[in-house]
Amino acid sequence: MVRALFLDLDNTLYPASAAMESETIRRMNEYVARLLGSGVEEAAALRRERMPNYGTTLEWLMAERGFSDVEDYFSYVHPDGEEESVALDPALGPFLDSIALPKYVFTNAPMEHAARVLARLGVADRFERVFDVRFCGLRGKPAASAVDAVVAAAGVPAAESLFADDIPRYVRGFVDRGGRGVLVDHFGKHADSGLPTIRTIYELAAFL
Description:
Elements (H helix, E strand, L loop, with lengths): L3 E4 L12 H17 L3 H11 L6 H9 L4 H8 L14 H6 L5 E4 L4 H11 L7 E3 L12 H11 L6 E5 L2 H9 L3 E5 L12 E2 L10
Parallel strand pairs: 1-2, 1-4, 2-3, 4-5, 5-6
Helix pairs in contact: 1-2
């Protein structure tokens, strides 16, 4: 029985086709290049190499590069107006309303980014709470500590919680802590994930 629903934000509440992801990655690579004094292409390659070991680019920089200016990083990577690249979806609010469960956003982004996107989509009031990367002590998904923290804060056992995300290892991180998980794979990129999979959030009902 599912008693609580945790939803990722980006590429989950809205389609992965939005320009948000590519623009965010571009800014991350620019920031890393500036920090390391390298070219953007070199920074992008290094970031791709190291990211499998960490939940976020920020976590990598903090762990391996001694980086500490977290707020400067967030302000550059997630500027005002970034949410304009996300298309409006009038059906999302009614769909969330149709799910008679407490709902939570669980994101590796900072709160200001989540607030902008949720406001853009018009669904901020559909969620009990947003658990951002600061809530998780800057060590987000798929870390066990992050999953345990948000589940404990929601007050529902992991075994009675469902989490939907577009990144397989984040879903597995939740499942490894005893929860239920479903992968949102808009373009069928992860056919070999071995995870329960849907193409869009609108297919969630089968797992509730």
